[in-house]
Amino acid sequence: MAERRFTNEEISELVDRYGSMIFRIAYCILCNKDDAEDAVQDTFMKYMTKAPEFTDEEHRKAWLIRVSANISKNMFKLRIRRHTLSLEEVKSAGIPESDFEAFEIISALPAKYKPVMTLHYAEGYKCSEIAEILGISEDAVKKRLQKGRALLKNEIERTE
Amino acid sequence: MTDIQTAEFMKIISSVALSPEDKAEITGRLIKSADSKNIITKKRAAAAGIAVAIAAGFVIPYVRNKSR
User: Fold this and answer.
1) Residue B56 lies in a domain
2) How many domains, chain A?
3) Cβ contacts of residue B36 below 8 Å, gap of 6+?
4) Does residue B41 form part of some domain?
């Protein structure tokens, strides 16, 4: 009998360890729970099919982040965009009801800025690390952070 | 963006997470996908086994004849 590359325990451990991180990145780009879950699944499927070799855990994490961000951005380009968010949906993704309006503002950011901002503010990566993970220059990361922050500030001031 | 707004952004984004049920559902689907891949692999293995058996059916008598 041919052997499977990953045991059930390995798959379960993988989802447990990285599932929420990938979901966070995907959800920030897609702003839709079902689509974000699909992106999580597609990322792990790619991981299981390709079974790439990694030098260490950080290398594996960076690969998963890059692949999930690319998958999510592609999904975002392809799908018919929804312009409204429902409170129930946002709550089911873990966001408290009190933060609904603030998340609506974040979701209005262009997809280009969201992975950089999520990796910096939620995952705590430095600009140089984000550049390496996403395969863009450090200057581009800094510009996207700056622009993303400015867009958010404008949006917050506009709604106040 | 002020520090308060940055902190707010961090708080909101950090609260996004998969629930244990969602994790279990995704894990289940991935295991199922891995299993279906396994079936394909098993079929391939079975086909390879048949090919070996056919080859052995021809090659072994041929070698025996030759050695006589």
Assistant:
1) yes
2) 1
3) none
4) yes
A44: closest CA among B31, B61, B46? B31
* Cα-Cα-Cα-Cα dihedral sign, residues A88, A91, A96, A101: negative
Reported ipTM: the value is 0.78
Enclosing domain of residue A105: 10-159
Nearest to B15 among A12, A40, A99 (CB): A99
CATH value at residue A38: 1.20.140.160
Q: Is residue B9 part of a domain?
A: no
The partner residue sitting opposite B13, judged by closest CB among A12, A28, A150, is: A28
- B4 — contact with chain A (CB < 8 Å)? no
CB A29 within 8 A of CB B11: no
Chain B interface mutation, best of A5, A7, A12, highest count of B Cβ atoms under 10 Å = A12
CB-based contacts of A92, cutoff 8 Å, min separation 6: A33, B19
- For residue range B2-41, list pLDDT tens digits in order: 666 677 777 888 888 999 999 999 999 998 888 775 544 4
Range of the structural domain that residue B40 is part of = 17-67
Per-10-residue mean pLDDT of chain A, 160 residues long, equals 73 95 91 90 92 91 94 83 72 84 82 87 90 93 92 79
**Domains contained in chain B, number:** 1
Chain A contact probe: residue of B13, B21, B36 with most A CBs at under 10 A: B13
pTM of the model: 0.75
